[in-house]
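Record type: monomer structure entry
Structure origin: computed from sequence
Chain ID: A
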Amino acid sequence: MHSYKRPPSARGRLTGLCVLSFCAAAPAMAQDSAAVSVEEVVVTAQRRAETLQKVPISITALSGEQAQQLNLTKASDLSGISPGVFAVGSRGDANPVFAIRGIGLNDTFANNNPTVGVYLDDIVQPFTPLLGFPVFDLERIEVLKGPQGTLYGRNTTGGAINFISKAPSQQFDAYATASYGRFGRTDIEGAIGGGITDTLALRFAGKVTDQSGGWQTNALTGEKIGDKDVKAARLMALWTPTDDLEVLLKASILEDRSDTQLREHVGYYAPGGGPCSGFLQGIRDEGNCVNSLGYFDPTPDRRTVEASEVYGHVADTSSRDVMLNVKYDMGMATLTSVTGYIDFKRSSGDDSDGSALVLLDSLFNDDIEAFSQELRLASNGDGPFSWMVGAYYSWDQLGSDIHQALDDHFFRTRVSIDALQKTTSYALFSQVQYRLTDRLRLTGGARYTEEKKTFKYDALDTNPFGTSAGLPTPVAGIDDTLREDVVTGKIGLDFDLTDDVMLYTSVSKGFKSGGYKSAIAFNPAELDPFVGENLYAYELGAKSSWLGGKLQLNSALYYYDYQDFQAFVTEIRSGINVIVLNNAGDAEVYGLEADLTARPTDRLLVRLSANAMKTEITKINPQVQADYQGNRLANAPEITGSAIVRYDLPTENMGFGSYVMVDGSFRGKTYYSVNNRGQSSQDSYALLNARVGFTSPDERWEFALWGRNLTDKLYVSTSYDNYGGIFPSQNFLGDPRTYGVSATFRY
C-alpha cells in the first residue's frame, strides 16, 4: 500500500455524489498542497491485484497491522468492523457462524456448510468448527458481499471472507508482540522471514495464548470458566526458480485446549404451566419462568450460571493443514493451481441444557478431513478484453460421534449418535470483462456446480441405568444420498463518471447446497435432506474519492430475493411434530450501505461505516407448521454501524511518536431465530474500544494500552430458541470489559 493524491476535478466529484443521493454536501475543506490522502489499498478480490476503489463490488479490506491494532484475535471479531457483517460464536468460539446482509446459516451443528465462504490463504474452510482459527501475521483481510461463485472455487451465497497470511519475501523481516490482559491472558506472537537463496524465501510465524480462568463462574463448582491454551504455528516457503514460475507452500499446525462458554438458562414456562409472563414480555425472568421440570437458575449475576457438566466444558482441538499455490506466467495468460488439505479433530464437552440438572449434557467428537484442488487460467495484459476460467474439485468428510446424557430427565438415560457425512463437489466457472469505452466496462460470469452428499446416521439408547422411561426409539440405519447441480452467474456494468467516481451495477445468482440434520432424531423423516437455497442479488453502488484524495466514500443499494432459505423450523413429519433444519420459505432483503474514510490532516484518520436493511420472510413452505411470514431473518439487525478514529499526537519533538485510537460499533435489535421471539433476541447496543500507543522514532518499538467493551456492556451474543420443547432455551453472552498492555518490536 502507498499514499496517493487524486487530481482536483471538484465539479466531477460533486456530480457523482449527487447521482447517488446517499449523502449530504461535501464538507468545505480547503485543499492545500500537502500530500495528505487516504491510503491506497490493493486487493485480490477478483483474482488479480487491483486498488480497492477500482473493484466494482462492495468490499471491506483491512491490513494486517490494522487488524492487530484493532485487537482482532479471531475471525468472528470482524463483526464490529465491516458494515452488514454479523458473526456469532456458539459455546464461545466453538462453531462460529457468519451472516452478511442477513444471509447466513442459522445452525451451529458441525456438519452443515457455511453460507458465507471463509477462505484461509485461498483454501475454503467447509465446516463451522474450522472457523475458530487464531488470527496472526496477516497481510490483509478482505470481506466481499454478495454471491461470489464466478471467481471462487467453492460456491458462496452470502459473500466471501479472505484471510491472507503474509507471504515470504527476499527482504529480511521480523516482529514480535507480547500482550498481557485482564483475566491473566497472555498472547505472544511473532514472525521471521527472508531470503535463503536467490530463489527461495521462508517465513515462520507463530502465536501462543494462555489464560487461567475468565469472566464466567459455575456456581455449582465455584470454578472460573475461561482457560485458554492455544499454540499455532505456520511455515511458508516461496520458490521462484524463474521469472515465470512462483511456488508458494504453506504448512500450519494448531493445538487448542480451551474452555467453552457455559450456557445461560432461559425458562419459558410458568411454575403452574403454560407460558410465563417473561416469555410473553420477551425477557429472561428466572424464577417466574422455569423449564419443563420446574428448574430455574437462581444466580443473581448473569455471568454466573449453574452447569452440571457431565462431560466437562473443554474443547480439545488438533488441526493440520497444507496449501500449495503454483503460478506460471505463460505470456498471454497465467495458470494458477491451488491445492489444499485439512485434517481437524476436536472433542468438546457441553452442558447443552444450561442448568444444574443433567437434562441434556453432551460430548461432541468431530473428525474432519478436507481436500480441494482449484485451477485458474487468467488473461494478462491491459487490453479491452480480460477473462478468467477455472475448474474446482473438493472432497471432504465429517465424522460426528455424539454422546448425550439425560440422567435427570424423566427419560433417565443416555444416547449415542454416530454420523458420517461425505461431500464431493465439482465446478466450472468463468468471468470475463470487456471495456466497451474508455469509461464503461461490461462484466459477465457463469458457473456450473455439481455436488453429492452421502449421509450415514445411527443413534442408540444405551439405557445405562436400566430405567429408561419412555424415550422414543432413536433413529438408526440411515444411509442416504443427496445430489444437486445448478447453474449460477453474474452480469454487471461499471462506469467511470469522473476520474474519481465509479458507478457500478450488478445482478447475480448464488447457491448453497442442501444437507442433513445431525442432531438426535426419533423419526426417520426428521433426517430427510433439505435442498439447496438460491439467492438473486441486485446491487447499485458507487466508489468515489473527494477533496484531492482526503476522503473516500463507497456506498451501495441492494435487493436480495432469497428463495428456499434454510433454517430451523417446526414441521409435521409422518404425523409427528419435529424441529428440523429445512427449507423454510422465501425472504426479501432491502439495504443501503455506506463506508466513509477521511484523512483531513496527516495526523487524523476517520472511518465511518453503516448498513441499514430490512429483511422479511415473504413465503412459508407448505410443510412448515409455524407461521413465520412477515418475520425478520435470524442474525439480521436492521441497523449496524462502526467508527474508527485515530489521531497521531504531536510528540515527535519529545523523541517518540504516539497516537490515540478509538473504535466502536452499534448493532440494532437482533433476533436469533426466525420465530422472532423476544426471549431469544438482543436489544440494540453499542460497544466501545480504545488504544493508546507509543512508538520509537524509527517505529521499530511500540508500547500500547488497550481496552475492549470499555462500558462493560452485558449483551447476548447468540441464543437458542427451544420454546415448546422439552429443553429450555439458552443464551451465550458477549465478553465483558477487557484491557491490557502490549509491546511490539519490528525489524
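Annotation 1: The chain has two domains: 10-23+34-263+307-746, 264-306.
Annotation 2: The two ends are 19 Å apart (CA to CA).
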